Amino acid sequence: MVEANDVEMKPADESSAASSPEAEVKKDPDLLTIEDIREQVKQLEKAVYGKDHRYAFRVLRCLANTRRKLNTNVLRRLVQGYYTHSAKERTALEAFIIDDNVRQNILYFIFFNC
């Protein structure tokens, strides 16, 4: 006989999936990289204004990981978002960013023709 205070136990798999639907939704890796870089810029600003070197060291430790995550989409978004000095200079900077397909073709050409 089940009393009114008793609760039926559910398996752990069902309860965790129902309670956190955000876990199934994956974020764009480019967007995550841009958010990481924004946080690193904020920490560098803290290091400069507060004259505290710990924030700068934290950014330097993350630099290698951030470099691995960079791609042409992230670089374009960063130039468009952070470089607000001059539109002419911004387009000149964007011209230097090579697409991934073009870069692969250049590397293929260099590797097999040398």
Structure, explained:
By secondary structure, the protein is mainly alpha-helical. Helix content is 71%, strand content 0%. It is built from six helices and no strands. Helix 2 runs antiparallel to helix 3. The radius of gyration is 23 Å and the shape is extended. It starts with 11 loop residues before the first helix and ends with a helix. The mean pLDDT is 78.
Features:
mainly alpha, 114 residues, single chain
Quick summary of this structure?
The protein is an all-alpha fold. It has helices at residues 12-19, 29-50, 53-69, 72-82, 87-95, 100-113. It is built from 6 helices and no strands.
Q: Helix content range of the residues, please?
A: over 70%
Strand content: under 5%
- Main beta sheet strand tally, sense and closure: none
Q: Return the structural class.
A: mainly alpha
Any idea what the shape is? Answer: extended
- Contiguous low-pLDDT stretches (5 residues minimum) are none
Question: How much is the radius of gyration in Å?
Answer: 23 Å
Distance between the termini: 82 Å
Count of strand segments: 0
Q: What does the average pLDDT come to?
A: 78
Order of helices and strands: HHHHHH
Instruction: Tell me the number of helical segments per DSSP (H or I, 4 or more residues long).
Output: 6
